[in-house]
């Protein structure tokens, strides 16, 4: 009976779809669990790091700018990636710019892009980090190292949600979320005139301080275990 066969085929298709949906859901939960386990093994499980994990969950799904503070090597980039991965932007790009690693004359082009002919050697249009991040997350590492001219231009981006490429005449819309990090005392930098106060307030919407390992020695065994498993894999 063709009609009966059609009903059987439909029933099988529905059951297969339900089973596929269940498997996809279980796989997603397993991946998140593995990610959480990896975070715990990399960061440790001290009270201070558990508090950081809680704050990450609280700020991840908002669009507020987050300033991550801490000494060099404490894992500020790990924290920024965790914020991105737990946000609704996780399937969008995560773009990192190390503000301390680029010469001052290249920073503006790296951040904002440039138009063809903007300067010697600019033989084509180049999109900067803000545009490359799209609707994802832009991580400004060592933001305290930005020279004052770049600070002034950066200030306008979160305010206006627009940027001007170097040599450009038209503004480009910006949708990326900004997460910044620094090992500097920005308050002292502001007092010394090396960091703009208005940019400091713009970046310091929500601050997250990552403590050094000497302040959380109970995390050492977990970190050693994570390192050994990484070397063995």
Layout of secondary structure:
Layout: H1 2-43, H2 47-60, E1 66-69, H3 76-85, E2 94-98, H4 104-112, H5 129-133, E3 137-141, H6 148-160, E4 162-163, E5 172-173, E6 177-182, H7 186-191, H8 197-203, E7 206-209, H9 220-232
Parallel strand pairs: 1-6, 1-7, 2-3, 3-6
Antiparallel strand pairs: 4-5
Helix pairs in contact: 1-9, 2-3
Fold and architecture overview:
The protein is of the alpha/beta class and 233 residues long. The chain has nine helices and seven strands; from the N terminus they run ααβαβααβαβββααβα. It has helices at 2-43, 47-60, 76-85, 104-112, 129-133, 148-160, 186-191, 197-203, 220-232; strands spanning 66-69, 94-98, 137-141, 162-163, 172-173, 177-182, 206-209. The strands form two sheets. The protein has a five-stranded parallel beta sheet. It has a two-stranded antiparallel ribbon with strand order 4-5. A hairpin with an 8-residue loop joins strand 4 (162-163) and strand 5 (172-173).
Tell me, what's the shape? Answer: globular
Helix content: 40-55%
Oligomer kind: single chain
Strand element count: 7
Strand order of the largest sheet: 2-3-6-1-7
Number of helices: 9
How much of the sequence lies in strands comes to: 5-15%
Give a quick account of the main beta sheet: strands, pairing sense, barrel closure.
5 strands, parallel
Structural class: alpha/beta
H/E element string?
Answer: HHEHEHHEHEEEHHEH
Rg over CA atoms, rounded to whole Å, is 23 Å
What would the average pLDDT be, to the nearest integer? 81
The poorly predicted ranges are 24-38
Q: Termini distance?
A: 57 Å
């Amino acid at each position: 009976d063709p009609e009966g066969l059609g009903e059987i085929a439909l029933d099988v298709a529905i059951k297969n779809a339900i089973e596929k949906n269940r498997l996809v859901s279980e796989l997603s939960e397993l991946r998140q669990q593995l990610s959480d386990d990896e975070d715990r093994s990399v960061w440790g499980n001290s009270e201070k790091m558990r508090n950081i994990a809680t704050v990450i969950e609280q700020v991840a799904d908002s669009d507020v700018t987050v300033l991550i503070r801490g000494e060099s090597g404490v894992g500020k980039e790990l924290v920024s990636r965790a914020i991105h991965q737990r946000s609704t932007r996780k399937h969008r790009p995560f773009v990192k710019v190390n503000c301390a690693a680029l010469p001052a004359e290249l920073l503006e082009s790296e951040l904002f892009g440039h138009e063809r002919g903007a300067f010697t050697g600019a033989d084509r249009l180049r999109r900067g980090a803000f545009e490359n991040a799209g609707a994802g997350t832009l991580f400004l590492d060592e933001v305290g190292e930005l020279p004052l001219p770049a600070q002034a231009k950066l200030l306008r981006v979160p305010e206006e949600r627009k940027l001007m490429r170097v040599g450009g005449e038209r503004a480009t819309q910006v949708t990326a979320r900004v997460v910044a990090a620094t090992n500097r005392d920005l308050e002292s930098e502001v007092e010394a005139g090396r960091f703009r106060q208005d940019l400091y307030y713009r970046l310091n919407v929500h601050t997250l301080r990552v403590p050094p390992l000497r302040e959380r020695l109970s995390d050492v065994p977990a970190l050693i275990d994570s390192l050994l498993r990484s070397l063995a894999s």
